[in-house]
Design goal:
495 residues, alpha/beta, Rossmann fold, 5-stranded parallel β-sheet, 16 strands
Length: 495
């Protein structure tokens, strides 16, 4: 039976999985969600012997039911190949008493690769299935990682163009260089004068701009998104939580049916939502622990039931989480409202107008699976340093936020279940912050000098993604004000 998708703001109209992937965002501004979360049709004992690619097929076929077996396997095999520097794709590493799921072994050394390696293949397959004749323009806002991963995924893909907006000064030097050196005739990168929320809100406004949609259509273009709002991004993320549990079982770290906790550093909420979907599919996950940095809008939400973005925006050493508008939270709000699109729409309107909303006591009860925690800048640094001194393992700033929150949760709750930490980026990606956390003597050393030093002290090879940008030419220099994004897109597309 085909699993259909509907908007979080209108439950009446349904679309197929391929249509939802193509559109990215629903016409009413809502996000596409499946009518229900399907159950796994294989046991954990069967899964534990599977490769990453086989696991991906077992999970994704349940969600993307209008893709044929051949289509889906082609997308999976094209995505999870030699672009990753390990055959296991997402290795599990035991660090003291937690298990780090390393999601940074792809082309851009961040977890976004896990989904953005496959999205271009899903999207182009969806376009063929739906007889699309227009060029697809991928419009994306990034806090650093999505941008490069999407650019790498879509570079020179026929029938597509990609435009990425990022906040000038709001990403790491490595992140910026990865984007502005990107090759590909169909790629454009623009630095906006503002923060990530400005970029994200600007992109969302362009999707909802009917006048622009018509202008683009007349010129032979249609928008789609590579942001986490696209269901084609979210479904591949579910895979690695299923895979991780099966591997813990295979390695005899847990027994069959044993519940684990999962800690995820998150800003836009997509990565932890994927773990929630994995739990609903049947993976024995007890608590979903949402780790925030000093931009702790999600921590406050889980504590109080109030989502309030009216606060100071703080630039931290974990910039991919410097977010005050958690776009994917809308999918969870819709779920805990009992799939009530009207109630969800009301709350999203309040967020838009007032900058805040409060959920009902009944909705708050349905959040029992979630815990929130946050780490300050100092606590993040301390976690990197002490873990390195004790174990020799070096983690990036985002993973350190999760590791700290995980340890605090254990200490405060007395919950001694085994815990999986989503390790979301290579330490090489945020090298200055990581190295100066290990030892302050590195604070004034050039980022690129630190690369070889990190390799030496950690005993790990410098990733190919870093080697590539050491001497690469800058190809993208365009900048614009946050309110000029529409004109910039039109200029790039010649509309």
């Amino acid at each position: 039976m085909n699993l259909l998708y509907k908007s979080t703001r209108n439950s009446e109209k349904t679309v197929t999985a391929s249509e939802a992937i193509l559109k990215g965002l629903a016409d009413d501004g809502g996000l596409f969600v499946p009518e229900y979360i399907p159950k796994l049709d294989v046991t954990m004992d069967e899964l534990k012997g599977m490769t990453y690619q086989e696991t991906a097929y077992a999970v994704m076929k349940q969600f993307l039911t209008d893709f044929t077996e051949e289509e889906l396997k082609h997308c999976i095999d094209s995505a999870y190949d030699s672009k990753f520097d390990t055959e296991v794709i997402a290795p599990l590493v035991k660090v003291e008493d937690t298990y780090h799921l390393e999601l940074f072994h792809g082309a851009t050394i961040a977890f976004k690769d896990m989904a953005l390696s496959i999205l271009p293949h899903l999207l182009t397959t969806a376009a063929r299935k739906n007889h699309v004749t227009k060029d697809i323009v991928i419009l994306t806002a990034t806090s650093g990682d999505t941008g490069k991963a999407a650019l790498a995924g879509f570079a020179d893909v026929p029938g597509t163009k990609i435009i990425v907006f990022y906040p000038k000064g709001g990403v790491s030097r490595v992140q910026e260089l990865q984007m502005v050196t990107q090759k590909g005739e169909n790629t454009s990168v623009v630095a906006i004068h503002g923060n990530f929320d400005n970029a994200q809100s600007g992109v969302k406004a362009l999707f909802e701009d009917k006048e622009l949609e018509k202008e683009l259509s007349d010129a032979g273009y249609q928008f789609s998104s590579a942001n986490s709002i696209n269901i084609g991004r979210l479904v591949p993320q579910v895979v690695y939580y299923v895979y991780a549990y099966a591997k813990l079982l295979e390695n005899e770290e847990i027994t069959s049916g044993e519940e684990i906790n999962v800690t995820v550093p998150t800003g836009n909420f997509g990565n932890i939502l994927a773990a929630y979907y994995a739990k609903q599919m049947g993976v024995p996950i007890a608590k979903l622990i949402c780790a925030s940095n000093e931009n702790k809008v999600l921590f406050d939400f889980f504590r109080t039931g109030v989502y309030d973005r009216n606060r100071e925006f703080i630039l931290t050493s974990s910039p991919s989480m410097d977010i005050l508008i958690s776009s994917n939270l809308e999918r969870l709000i819709y779920t805990i409202a009992g799939q009530d699109a009207k109630k969800n729409s009301e709350l999203m309107e309040q967020l838009k107008v007032k900058g805040s909303y409060e959920i009902t006591p009944e909705m708050k009860e349905r959040l029992a699976d979630f815990e929130g925690g946050y780490a300050t800048e100092e606590e993040t640094k301390e976690t990197i340093r002490t873990t390195y001194e004790k174990t020799g393992y070096v983690m990036d700033t985002h993973t350190a936020v999760a590791a700290y929150v995980c340890a605090q949760y254990r200490k405060n709750s007395g919950d001694d279940k085994k815990c999986l930490v989503a390790s979301t980026a290579s330490p090489y990606k945020f090298i200055h912050s990581v190295m100066s956390a290990i030892d302050e003597k590195y604070a004034d050393v050039d980022e690129f000098e630190l690369i070889d030093e990190l390799s030496r002290i950690s005993g790990t090879a410098v990733p190919k993604a870093i080697e590539e940008i050491r001497n690469a030419d800058i190809r993208h220099t365009k900048e614009c004000d946050a309110d000029a994004m529409k004109d910039t897109v039109k200029e790039i597309l010649g509309v």
